[in-house]
Amino acid sequence: MENHPTLIAAARTGDIAFLQSILSDGVNVNINDEKGYTPLIIACYNNRLEAAKLLINAGADVNAADIGGNTALMGVCFKGYPEIAKLLVESGADLDLQHGNGGTALMFATMFGRNELVKMMLDYGANPDITEFRGLTALDLAIQQGNKEAIELLDTQT
User: ANK repeat ranges (predicted)?
Assistant: First the structure.
């Protein structure tokens, strides 16, 4: 069974009891829906920390990406969920993966003013020198967005 919509739905709502039940039945924790989302990507994007922990403990791939190349870490850096970002990184998420246009989790945090996450990604060792498809770095994006705090954080990295 490649797609299990109830697993994706339970991840979206954070239904821990149902997730535990269905995972104990041996369902593939790394299934994808039509957009390539895994249960972990969905749980993280919807700020479901406990569901994310459960899925990771059940073997979810923390570096899985949707069809656009977006990972759970990119999603939480876009949305601004530092607790989940910490969980993902400490569970082995690759800080420097790039999506289809070359963006990274650090770039998402920078562009959307998630400066706590900019600092966290840098503290964990994210590479600020990676460029996206236009040749821009996270610092370039911070300047473009007028994100003064991120500019200061990133400027000390170069």
Answer: 2-34, 35-67, 68-100, 101-133
